[in-house]
Design brief:
heterodimer; A: about 400 residues; alpha/beta; D-Maltodextrin-Binding Protein, domain 2; 2 domains; five-stranded mixed β-sheet; 16 strands; about 40% helix; B: about 200 residues; Arc Repressor Mutant, subunit A
């Protein structure tokens, strides 16, 4: 490692930290003159704090986290930028056997289909309210997480109020399966392999997946401390290149076996190598012997999966305002949008010859099939990117989108 | 509110360390201290106790759960991380290095709670030191046991006296610039591979 610039990067033991891990393990970081000191953490709060005190320069992060931090919504706030995203999709919603069995009595379930599963869930929730049973408790990994916002989007879209009809709590990913088995929670939304773990143990069923709630949707990002980034832009760009090349490597099916072996090692996930594979193949064992092929379950690289779309930042902002987690204002909207830095990404990866989108924002939910878009090089196809309820997000009309959702939420 | 009327909640899965913190707080005149070792169910305790200061260990994977409770709390007395103004960068650094974090209710004057965090930091550091010393004592003891076994092997296989066996181990360690325990360990491993151990 002589002559290499050392960057300390924090990560949580989740499969989508793979792009950072592989950047170091397969030499992409070294190619860029970097040595990534990878530090596994036990909470997102620790990652944020250690970024604040300068222990970490960059970290694996939930996409809404840097936005919440830049909007000063957390208990401690650090200015951050997002120069690259860490893939699309990857999460699922798992429910307990008891909830699954209750839902199954409501008629045939179109498994993993958000509208069908959601309707059955609503019916179970109504029954419980009538008998005076406590509301179902769902867990997400963090308050400011894609998990929280996609779970809420799905529930509300199925006529379930995420604030009144159910309780949403936070549980660390590695503890989710145990909490479900013990009955502390009735369901959870988390990345792999923590959904498959409940299925393998026979203590839960996968009800639906992020890719079905919103296909090709953002999940984790690389968050970089803003002040450090502004003084070390060449290192930031080198890091973006290393991670982008790692993402491309992760997306190649030929590497999946090696990837699973690397990620299951004790320093990373510390799990059985056969477990993380469903995330890579999209063949999801939902429990009870059913295996479903999910399109775009987790996309590490294709479809501009590492591009930090400002429209993704705006969608998370719209949900924060929708649920009262952030005040809505033109200034906040601008800050959320500018947390994502497609300009840095574009500058960094241009030498690699990748096809990079020409725009910084896109209308989301409008592509019902894969389509070619304007890019630095021909051949970049995006989508399909539909929301399960058919709604469209136009980054040019964020306020109207929020107002429309809030009006609809009032009827829940 | 008098100086020591602050209600302090300590969340630490390590019961021993929590009690060390508690005794330190009591010595400093804080009588209103509650300890919880399990974050599940902490929500209720926080609601009823309404603590002014919450001290939590950084290894606790439930920090995100705790912080989400603060986000959900509609009450004015919303806890915030200590030293949010970041002017006191060294204090937050020392806390993170020690492995402890604290939350205080918004509006509480910093100078009133700083001694509490300082105390928690020093007790956390003392606890780590104690654990390290224990580890060292344990490994020293293990090292001595290994040397005894290695000596026995040499005495049996090479017909050496105990003193000669020890000298050989020490000389080998010095020549290879390694610890005598390591040399003893490799000798035991080699002997067991060759099947002539014991």
């Amino acid at each position: 490692m002589t002559g290499l610039t050392e960057i300390t990067v924090g990560f949580m033991p989740l499969f989508d930290s793979a792009m950072i891990v592989i950047a170091q393990e397969k030499g992409f970081a070294a190619d860029e003159g970097l040595f990534l000191r990878l530090v596994r953490e036990t909470s997102w709060a620790n990652i944020r704090d250690r970024l604040a005190v300068g222990h970490f320069e960059a970290a694996h992060m939930l996409a809404p986290m840097p936005i919440a931090s830049n909007l000063a919504l957390q208990t401690l706030n650090v200015d951050m930028i997002v120069p690259i995203a860490l893939g699309l999709g990857g999460n699922a919603v798992t429910i307990s056997n008891a909830v699954h069995d209750a839902m199954a009595t409501k008629g045939p379930l179109d498994i993993l289909k958000p509208a069908s599963v959601g309707a059955a869930l609503k019916s179970v929730i109504t029954d419980r309210a009538q008998t005076g049973a406590r509301p179902l408790r769902f867990a997400v990994v963090h308050f400011f997480s894609g998990h929280n916002y996609e779970l809420r989007y799905w529930l509300a879209g199925c006529g379930i109020s995420p604030d009144r009809d159910v309780e949403i709590v936070v549980v660390p990913p590695p503890l989710m399966a145990d909490a479900l088995a013990m009955g502390t929670i009735d369901g959870y939304c988390v990345g792999e392999p923590w959904n498959s773990l409940s299925v393998v143990r026979g203590t839960g069923h996968i009800a639906t997946v992020k890719a079905a709630i919103w296909q090709t949707s953002p999940e984790k990002v690389l968050g970089v401390e803003a002040r450090w980034a502004s003084h070390n832009m060449p290192a930031v760009e080198a890091l973006v290149r290393a991670v982008a090349r790692a993402a491309e490597w992760c997306g190649n099916p030929e590497n999946h076996q090696e990837l699973a072996a690397i990620m299951s090692a004790p320093d990373y996930l510390g799990l059985d190598a056969s477990l993380p594979m469903p995330a890579l193949t999209g063949r999801i064992n939902t429990g009870g012997g059913q295996v479903v092929d999910v399109a775009d379950f987790l996309i590490p690289f294709a479809k501009a999966a590492t591009f930090p779309w400002q429209s993704h930042g705006l969608w998370f902002y719209s949900q924060m305002v929708r649920w009262g987690h952030s005040a809505g204002s033109a200034e906040n909207q601008k800050r959320a949008q500018e947390t994502f830095r497609p300009d840095i990404y574009r500058r960094a990866v241009t030498p690699l010859g990748y096809a990079v989108p020409g725009a910084n924002m896109k209308v989301m939910g409008a592509l019902s099939r894969a389509d070619f878009v304007g890019a630095s090089r021909s051949g970049l196809a995006l989508g399909p990117d539909g929301f399960f309820d058919g709604r469209i997000f136009d980054p040019a009309a964020v306020e109207a989108y929020i107002a429309d959702l809030i009006a609809k939420d009032r009827t829940l | 509110m008098a100086a020591n009327d602050l209600k302090i909640l300590v969340l630490d899965e390590n019961a021993l360390r929590a009690s060390i913190i508690e005794s330190g707080l009591r010595q400093a005149g804080h009588d209103n201290v509650t300890i919880i070792n399990e974050v599940f169910g902490a929500a209720r305790t926080i609601e009823t106790l309404k603590p002014d200061v919450i001290v939590i260990d950084l290894q606790n994977p439930n920090r995100d759960m705790l912080e989400s409770m603060f986000q959900l709390s509609r009450s004015v007395r919303r806890p915030i991380a200590m030293f949010v103004d970041r002017s006191d960068q060294t204090a937050i650094e020392r806390a993170v290095d020690a492995g402890v974090s604290a939350y205080v209710v918004d509006g509480l004057r910093q100078e009133r709670v700083k001694p509490i965090l300082d105390m928690a930091i020093s007790r956390f550091n003392a606890f780590s030191r104690m654990q390290r010393e224990l580890e060292e004592a344990k490994s020293e003891l293990e090292g001595r046991k290994l040397v005894d076994r290695a000596k026995a092997i040499l005495m049996k296989s090479r017909g050496m006296s105990e003193e000669e066996a020890y000298k050989l181990l020490r000389k080998t360690a010095m020549n290879q610039n390694r610890k005598i325990g390591e040399i003893a360990q490799s000798l035991i491993t080699a002997a067991s591979l060759l099947g002539d151990d014991e």
